[in-house]
Amino acid sequence: MSELSVVGKNVIRLDALEKVTGTALYAADEALGEPGMLHGKVLWSPHAHARIISIDISRAKKVPGVEAVLTGKDVPEARVGSCVDDQHMLAREKVRFVGDAVAVVAARTLEAAEEALALIKVKYEVLPAVFDAEEAMRPDCPVVLHPGLSGYKRNMYPYLGNDLPGPNVHTHHKVRRGNVEEGFRQADLIVENRFSTARISHCQLEPASSVARPNVDGTLVISTSTKSVYTGVQAEVCRFFGLPPSKVRGVTHYIGGNFGSAPRAHIFAALAAIRTGRPVKVVFSREECFFRDLNRLPMVIYLKDGVKKDGTLVARQIKLICNCGAYAQITPLVIRNGSFGSSQYRIPNFRWDAYGVYTNEPPSGAFRGFGNAQPFWAMEQHMDIIAEKLRMDPVELRQKNLIAEGEENLRGEKTHSMGAAECLDKVAQWIGWGRPTSQPSSNTVKVAKGFALANKYTQVDTIASALVRFNKDGFVDVFHGSDEIGQGSQTVLAQIAAEELGVPVEKIKVIWGDSARVPYDHGAISSRTTMFVGNAIRAACQDVKRLICATASPVMGAAPEDLEARGGQIYFRSNPSKSMPVSDLFLPGRATCLPHDAELLGQGTFFYKGYSDGDPETGQGTRLTASYCYTAHAVEVAVDTETGEVKVLRFCSATDVGRAINPKLCEAQSEGGIAQGIGSALYEEMLLDRGRVLNCNFHDYGMPRMTELPGNHDLKCFLVEANHREGPFGAKGMGEGAMTPSAPAIANAIYNATGVRLMDLPMSPERLLRALKAQNKEAGHKSGPL
Amino acid sequence: MKQRVTLNINGTEEEVYAEPWWSLAQVLREEFGLGGTKIACNTGDCGACTVLLDGKAVRSCLILAVKAQGRKVVTIEGLRGKDGGLHPLQQAFMEHFAVQCGYCTPGMILTAKSLLDENPAPTEEEVREGMSGNLCRCTGYAKIVEAVMAASARMRGEHR
Amino acid sequence: MHFKYLTPNTIPQAMALLARHKTRATVMAGGTDLVVKMRSRAIDPAYVVDLSNIPGLDFIDFNPRDGLNIGALASIRALETSTLVGKQYPVLQSAAHQLASPAIRNMATLGGNLCNASPSADMAPGLIALAAKARIAGPEGETFMPLEEFFSGPGKTALKAGQVLVGIQVPASQASMQAVYLKHARSSIELAVVGVAAGVILDSDGRSCKDVRIVLGAVAPTPMRARKAEAALLGKKLDDKAIVEAAEIAAGEARPISDVRASADYRTEMVRVFTGRALRVAAGIAS
To answer: What number of other Cβ atoms are within 10 A of residue A109's Cβ?
Structure first.
């Protein structure tokens, strides 16, 4: 590839100026103090499972300033959902979790809305509830959340509804390769364990916010802090309310963090706006965000591995039971796509059964890693357990089993852009694997290192379009439909356009966030924006260059193919010293070129033509993912054996990004992933008591603070660049992979420090101390006098 | 009943009628349109709503607007110099990629301002401790700490 | 939240307002705890009596006769940064430093932290270790009460209707006490899982324990002294063996509950660990 001038450079974020000056607009900042705006508040179910006997809204309606009090009677008859249509947006007969929506109030002031909310009287008949997924999964579970499940419509991958072992199970995802029984027979060593992961919250700082404005022509304009103007806002609102896309305009501003959260304040704002004909703003409290944002899917993982004496993996069987909460939401897809991570090793015999189970807990959903971090919590601890039992070096064990470039992975895909080996080497070297720790252990503080390798795929079956407008002043407008959720996509996309057009990045303006103004895109999900939107923008740039050459052809007296547009100039290919500025195409008097200042507009679309869905019975296909981003983490921890506290002393990551369009932005994603990884490993857990979240605030929920991360000299993020042939300039998505290996890496380090292996998340001081004491007791029994 | 409150906001004398239970953050946002002051937790735990009150960092979500009567408030919108130039902290946050989603950014910058006013040459540990009341979910903090250290050096006349 | 906001200019005015509105009124100082409680509807007062307009309640001074006098409205940040406090009673400076974040400490006051009467209040254990007294203004005049008697339950104090905490006094004699406050929490921002203050005055021989106080936070309805553990140390040589025993006794005295931050069992165990650590630091034998 020829020398790149903008790609690979640390271009300062395009949004940085607005963000440091406080002028950046977020959904929560829209309509501040706007007269006439109604404020919406939602009444949530206080019960985990109950039948609604009656709802009395008469007193609530009388509160001065109240414009509407809406209940299940006021919402569309049809059930709705992401994957399974299993929910009314306001409960009709039953509530199924603490936080199920029961009523919406819209009022002229927030105070009036709150007062009215308190005056709604709901009579419930409390029903027995089930909270444990393994219990709920039993065929004879006495509590059945959705007796009508078999009749519910499925919106994607309907085969996930086959072979369900119990009435509360809505998803069964299977992967089959080889024959695991045969594999285990060949194995010299079999390791089998049960693991579990906690329910964790995205904690994006911007609370869920939305403003819905009904237009006089019947169009609904909805701005929201939820990502994806097309799929997340427009398509969803259309489906939920039975509206055509032409009547719904989705708008996003800057989004104050996302990480997969989907609290959907916009559904309630839309409902109230439709029913009142007035603009309505809904902002969730932090507490509401905790139980409405579709937190990370908790899983129980039964893992069985078979391995030869020399470390060759021969069989892996994995069964996952996923506590999806009261509604399926996006979890069937999370469960399906959570299987892709296991493809990083060569495993000839593989069996995966993952079950999505309804319980009376808050619904789960997507969270950075989309179902992959949870299996890795088990799989990457197993690699260390196996290595120890075989007396092998754990780095070597992983390297030995890594799938190679060009090799068919366990899903039938041909492996490409495989930087995992280099990632492993980089972190092992930086952390000083096999060398002494940075500080010695004492009687009560044990220090050791650990690491893990993981990956995150990018979804293949999405589409991106882009428009590029070359303006007469030399500036370029780039229109696309993905979102700025903090990752820096606007900057990266501007760099891609600048590189392709040969213009300085300062001349690129990126326009996004409005379904009425930007072309279709699937949105900022699945680490896909750089690759999908980047490619669409590249194609649009190429298109506009073709148009420029075609338009210039009669003026310059050359065939379009003999011209080249670059850097705002049009050159003769045969004689690059002769050129004409693109801006001349706009000159008055040259009516032959661009009459009436018409536009130079290019368009581009990117999608994979040859992708496959995967066989419903075996999960096998040829192209199930767009790309894989590999991430290795290595840590050094200090464990206080008296308190169970773990301090992360040093942390290193290496991430295969294909190509870093903006290395600092990639590094920033890695650092953020590390912090979330540490949080998920050591502190974070939504504590529930019979379905009620007990710690829905930032003092009782353990999101990491500055003091809980290693100092800047003890933190290193490497970028590995195994170019992807289909990525823009070789780039592939990387943001989501950034936390997938953290928890097992830390668990492995804790084991190396103390000999205690924790299989449940988080590894809280209390849990670790209990395990340490159990270990001491056991050791006492073994060594004590008989 | 609404009470009259006078405040000096970013150097300008202002007057507002506020219910006694309205927080300063709410009043800055809804009554003065100063959306740079963010509300993320409303319990004082995250620091997104940090403003300077008589020069010191405080949580504007925990201060009743009526309690701020007669006092000087500086928000992120008021941090730029008279000439419109960026404060060295704003400059450093941009240059060091300390901004991601940006929702914590105004609070981070104002907390850092207060910290550097009291301790112009902090160590990295002092920065981490002094700013640990401010939560960020995106950055992992490394680049924020780096930016504060760089701004501190710049403000002391050292070039980095 | 729906209340009248009252700003008395003098203590007598404040007392009169509180006497008039009784349980329907609540006192505000910095407001950092109170606003959160009101917003979550944990309390819903009809009147908020803000003391901040009363002049002269934010002082910190020391004289050899009375010892340290701190006004109820002195901010936690002022305590943390006071060279006077740092020199004479470093445990208070350290406790202030461990209370929440600087922005909260700029607003929060000593009186507020104590009157909020959280079992995990960071300022209480150190002050009780130093035998501090609460200075209370009331209709019958000003009275002093040992701070350890000031707390009557979670969120409850011994203040009667119309009474106001106006300050704290720490006896001059306690300046010779070696005291330390250790907070066990994920970080200082979070509430203590366990807080332990230990204060020791050694005999002239420099070895045996002339006076000792062990005060536990977050393990009982109020901050509590571990009196049996103190008794076990009094007059004894303060060595590792004695400390281990005392820590064990203190763990037995704690009456913790299980909540979202920790289980009762874990708290009990942490009382043992942190009492041991605090005593070692106070005795100057920390490793």
So the answer is: 15
Options 1.10.10.10, 3.40.50.970, 3.30.390.50, 3.10.620.30; CATH for C177-283 is: 3.30.390.50
- Cβ of C103 under 8 Å from any chain B Cβ? yes
Domain boundaries in chain A? Answer: 27-127+203-292, 295-460+613-777, 462-606
SS3 C283: helix
Name the residue among C2, C28, C106 with its Cβ closest to that of B58: C106
Between CA A227 and CA A522 the distance in angstroms is: 10
Out of 3.30.465.10, 3.90.226.10, 3.40.630.30, 3.40.50.720, the CATH code matching C60-173 is 3.30.465.10
Give tens-digit pLDDT for C122-143. Answer: 999 999 999 999 999 999 899 9
The candidate with the shortest Cα–Cα distance to A741, out of A479, A441, A379, is A379
Q: How far is C179 from chain A (nearest CA, A)?
A: 22
CATH 3.30.43.10 describes domain C4-53: yes
Beta strands C194-202 and C151-153: pairing type? Answer: unpaired
**Going by DSSP bridges, is the β-strand pair A169-177/A66-71 parallel, antiparallel, or unpaired?**
unpaired
B3-78: what CATH class?
alpha beta
State the fold for domain A295-460+613-777.
Answer: Aldehyde Oxidoreductase; domain 4 (3.30.365)
- Partners of residue C167 on adjacent β-strands: C71, C135
Q: Look up the CATH number of domain A27-127+203-292.
A: 3.90.1170.50
Amino acid (1-letter code) at residue A156? M
Tokens linked to A754: 């103390």
Percentage of chain A beyond pLDDT 90 is 94
Written out in words, the top-level CATH class of the domain with range B88-155 is mainly alpha
- Which chain B residues touch C5 with a CB distance below 8 Å? 3, 20, 64, 66
Least Cα distance to A700 among C120, B136, C220, B45 occurs for: B45
Indicate if ipTM > 0.95.
yes
pLDDT of amino acid A76: 93
For an interface test with B, give the residue of A19, A489, A707 to mutate (most B CBs within 10 A).
A19
* Beta-carbon separation of A29 and B45 below 8 A: no
C38 reaches B (C-beta below 8 A): yes
Please determine, for residue A596, whether its predicted confidence score (pLDDT) is greater than 50: no
Return residues 69-98 of B near A (CB < 8 Å): 75-77, 79-80, 86, 89-91, 93-95, 97
Quick check: C212 and C233 in contact, CB under 8 A? Answer: yes
Q: What is the pLDDT of residues C71-91, one digit of tens each?
A: 999 999 999 999 999 999 999
Cβ(C120)–Cβ(C224) under 8 Å?
Answer: no
